[in-house]
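Students often ask why inverse folding is considered easier than folding. One informal answer: many sequences map to the same fold, so there is more than one right answer. In these notes we will look at a single instance of the problem. The structure comes first.
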């Protein structure tokens, strides 16, 4: 199947298919060696179903990898004031998830592990790796300073992509008030005194 915008220089055993992972999967049992799920927070109405379908479609010994993050921007050291804009950012997405029935709480409370175990994966094979992705250069370690630069840059440049549809179509905000909101979030992300991160 050819999908517009996909590369045409793929290997012969690779093809692209456009589908909705939240619907019933049409793939046969034991079809895949590896299933990768990435950054679908706010997109899936039944995560347990998605994991059950992935389990069914994996070959024995196959792997599922799910990488997602939390929209709950936070700090561990008290560097964020109680009235900081991230509180509104967090509520913005929590409210949207409640309205749509498609939660943005995906990595909280070991939910991914619970979904995997409920789907049938052996508990001993379920591994959760957690990371704190900083915004900016506040971490002491050189590696995490660099990660923080990339995370902050990608987040600042992607604010409209993250929030315009959610704000206008789900929450009923007007574009000008969203732009003011995004400007405040950008300023917080650029504030070197805020030791903020989002969990992955």
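Output (designed amino acids):
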């Amino acid at each position: 199947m050819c999908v517009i915008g996909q590369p045409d220089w793929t290997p012969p055993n690779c093809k692209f298919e456009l589908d909705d992972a939240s619907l019933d999967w049409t793939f046969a049992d034991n079809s895949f060696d590896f299933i990768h799920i990435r950054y679908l927070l706010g997109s899936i109405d039944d995560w347990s179903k998605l994991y059950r379908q992935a389990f069914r479609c994996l070959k024995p010994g196959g792997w599922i990898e799910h990488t997602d993050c939390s929209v709950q921007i936070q700090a561990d050291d008290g560097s964020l004031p109680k009235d900081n804009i991230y509180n509104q950012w967090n509520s913005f997405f929590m409210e949207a998830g409640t309205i749509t029935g498609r939660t943005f709480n995906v990595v909280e409370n070991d939910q991914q592990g619970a979904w995997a175990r409920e789907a049938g994966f052996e508990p001993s094979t379920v591994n959760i790796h957690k990371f704190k992705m900083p915004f900016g250069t506040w971490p002491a370690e050189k590696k995490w300073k660099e990660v923080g630069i990339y995370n902050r840059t990608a987040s600042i440049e992607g604010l409209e992509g993250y929030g315009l549809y959610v704000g206008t179509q789900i929450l009923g905000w007007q574009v000008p008030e969203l732009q003011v909101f995004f400007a405040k979030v950008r300023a917080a992300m650029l504030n070197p005194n805020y030791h903020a991160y989002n969990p992955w």
